[in-house]
Amino acid sequence: MAPVLNVGIVGTGIFARDRHLPSYQEYPNDFKVVAAFNRTKSKAQEFAKIAGIPDDKVYDNLDEIMNDKNVSFIDALLPAQFNLSAVKKAIEVNKPILLEKPIAATMAQAREIVQLSDASDLPIAIAENWLYLTCIKLALKQLERIGPIVAFTHNSTGPFVSTNKYLATSWRQNPEHIGGFLSDGGVHQLALVTALLGEFESVSALTKQVRPESGADDIVFSTVKMRDNNVIGSFTYGSAFGATEKSVFLKIYGKNGTVTVELSDKTQPLVKVRIGDSIENAGKEEIFQVEKDESFGVNPEFLNFHEAVSKNDKSLIKSSPRATFHHLACVAAFLESSANNGKNVSVETI
Ligand SMILES: NC(=O)c1ccc[n+]([C@@H]2O[C@H](COP(=O)([O-])OP(=O)(O)OC[C@H]3O[C@@H](n4cnc5c(N)ncnc54)[C@H](OP(=O)(O)O)[C@@H]3O)[C@@H](O)[C@H]2O)c1
Fold first, then answer.
1. How far is the centre of ligand 1, averaged over its atoms, from the C-alpha of 77 (Å)?
2. How remote is the CA of residue 122 from the centroid of ligand 1, in Å?
3. Which end of the chain has fewer surrounding CB within 10 Å, N or C?
4. What domains can you pick out in the chain, each with its CATH number?
5. CA-atom Rg of the chain in angstroms
6. Quick one: three-class SS letters along 314-350?
7. Which of 14, 41, 173 to probe ligand 1 with, by most ligand atoms within 8 A of CB?
């Protein structure tokens, strides 16, 4: 039987409390949250009460929790500019670490994390959760029916939500991470698109800041050329608009039909398929219900990390620093392109 891994939480904010802790608690045979550290200690103490962590395991600094021999791995939920120093410390004490997305605040930091991770045997993962969405496996299977793939449209747009609890965090309103909301949320969407279609090679993009609260540009409209497969597409992302319906879909066009991943209703993702090489030969729309996952990929992501840690095999990790580097690199390319009036920009590789 796989061991129960003891989790040390670093950064006991909203997402630690509302998503990570409940997800760990769903798997008591795999995880036990045993220690916590937070910059503001009172918040770690409140978190400890809910999580059942004893007082002497609420630490005063990062070194203490990293050095706790009873902690099997660190789960860090921090503003992205702190990820690099957390990785360095974890490697120093030989402790596996899961970090929340985006991989880093800058491309230079992201590059350093990938290099450090490549040089170490430790399991290190970036939690982007969308890489683990249940719709991906289903959609990949359907894509085999419509090939060759020619193009795609990814659209994720929605109304501004002024009461959004995440929006109120000061580090989001004054972002040190490139792209602000475009990297904070956009890496999820990029994880989905690249999981189905491969890497972006180059982009032409225009970005814009709609809301002062966003602290940086908060919408992107782009065209994309994919690497290796001749596919072209468009990538649109932003939830800073006036009243409109939430519309999240990825439509993939092949020579023999289309596959659409429909995520507008998060509680009921769908994969829709039309087969046929022309209107004359078009089949009926087929609609596939996606297996429900209320954690939206977080649970399978944690189980994937559990397997990598318990087998001490970092190659099992899907959301590796190298894979997630690409998602931040796409955001960096959007920003560079927009700063140059939509000029075509190659996406940085590593
Ligand atoms: N995968 C997803 O869908 C998803 C969703 C939401 C968030 N997240 C990620 O989860 C992480 C936390 O986000 P959140 O929404 O929970 O925000 P949050 O509530 O503001 O949590 C941020 C945490 O970082 C700490 N922190 C802030 N500035 C710090 C500093 N200068 N030094 C040390 N610690 C500092 C905060 O400590 P204080 O309590 O002292 O401020 C807090 O514990 C982020 O990486 C975010 O990207 C992921």
1. 5
2. 24
3. N
4. 5-130+297-319 (3.40.50.720), 133-293+329-346 (3.30.360.10)
5. 20
6. HHHCCCCHHHHHHHHHHHHHHHHHHHCCCCCEECCCC
7. 14
**How many angstroms does the Cα of residue 253 sit away from the middle of ligand 1?**
38
- Which of 100, 103, 164 for mutating ligand 1's site (highest number of atoms within 8 Å of CB)? 100
Cα torsion for 96, 99, 102, 107, to the nearest 10°? -40
Q: Return the best residue to mutate from 47, 60, 78 for the ligand 1 pocket (most ligand atoms within 8 A of CB).
A: 78
Q: Give yes or no for residue 288 CB within 6 A of ligand 1.
A: no
> Alpha helices, DSSP H only, in the chain?
14-15, 21-25, 41-51, 62-67, 83-92, 107-118, 134-146, 170-173, 181-184, 186-197, 298-310, 321-339
Residue 119, SS3? coil
Q: Please, which residues bridge with residue 258 across strands?
A: 253, 274
**34: its two tokens:** 């045993």
- The three-state (H, E, C) secondary structure of 152-168, written as one string: EEEEEEEECCCCCCCCC
Q: What is the pLDDT along the chain (350 residues), one digit of tens a residue?
A: 789 999 999 999 999 999 999 999 999 999 999 999 999 999 999 999 999 999 999 999 999 999 999 999 999 999 999 999 999 999 999 999 999 999 999 999 999 999 999 999 999 999 999 999 999 999 999 999 998 999 999 999 999 999 999 989 999 999 999 999 999 999 999 999 999 999 999 999 999 999 999 999 999 999 999 998 999 999 999 999 999 999 999 999 999 999 999 999 988 999 999 999 999 999 999 999 999 899 999 999 999 999 999 999 999 999 999 999 999 999 999 999 999 999 999 999 99
Residue 4 identity (one-letter amino acid): V
Count of CB atoms situated within 10 Å of the CB of 36: 27
Ligand 1 pocket member 78 (CB < 6 A)? yes
| Cα–Cα distance measured from residue 116 to residue 102, given in angstroms and rounded to the nearest whole number | 17
How many Å lie between the centroid of ligand 1 and the Cα of residue 274?
42
CB distance 96 to 124 below 8 Å: yes
CA 99 to chain centre: 10
